[in-house]
Amino acid sequence: MEVQGDKQSLATIQDKFNELDSKVPDGLHQLWVEQELVVQSFWQNTLQAMDIYEVQLEKAPTMKAIEIDLIHNDHSFSSSHGSATWIAWALKVEQAQIVLAMDT
């Protein structure tokens, strides 16, 4: 009985991995394959080669950083737009952040 549960778990994990793997751009996927081949051939001589397996995530910008960036870089709003336009746009940004947080 336990083997059946293990097989189901493995199938679920494989499905999730394949789903995640299919979302990786081809160029990035190829880069990872090439890096792994290099590591596999040099890891015994150079332990630093294993550094490619370190998680390399960039932190998401803070809401304040987004606001500052919008103020300095976004020229889509002219001076004729009032505060209601800014509030509506900020609510859309906040909604997108909530949806993104729920997906992760």
From TrEMBL:
This is Uncharacterized protein. It comes from Pisolithus tinctorius Marx 270.
